[in-house]
Structures are given as structure tokens and as C-alpha cells.
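Reopening this one. Same input as before:
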Amino acid sequence: MQIRLVILAAALATPLSGCLRTDTERAVAGAAAGAVVADVLDTNVVAGAAIGAGAGALCDDAGLCN
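Same output, byte for byte:
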């Protein structure tokens, strides 16, 4: 059940990443999303925010949010 929630959150967040223009905006949105997902999954919120921020900042470089 928890993995479905994570997949759903990622699927819903992907289209929103195109609205964000800079790496900083994407990193902040990723950090917020990562913290929320980590809280829902009852894991380390700080680690979730850090992973989300990294993913948000690097998604443009990886070609995922063009």
C-alpha cells in the first residue's frame, strides 16, 4: 500500500515540475514533496526532503522535466 502512495505522488508531481522554471524552484518543490511523502510513510522527514530537493534540482539535467 505504501509503495502505491509513493508512485502516485511521483506521478502527480511530474506534470507540476514543468511549471517551475529554475533549479531552485524545483528543489524547493521537491523538498516539500519529499518531506510529505516521508511523513506519510513514517520515515525520516529530513532525509525525504533532502532526496526530494536533489531530485527536483536535477530533474531538468536528467531531461525529466522539460
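So the earlier flakiness isn't reproducible anymore. For the record, The two ends are 30 Å apart (CA to CA).
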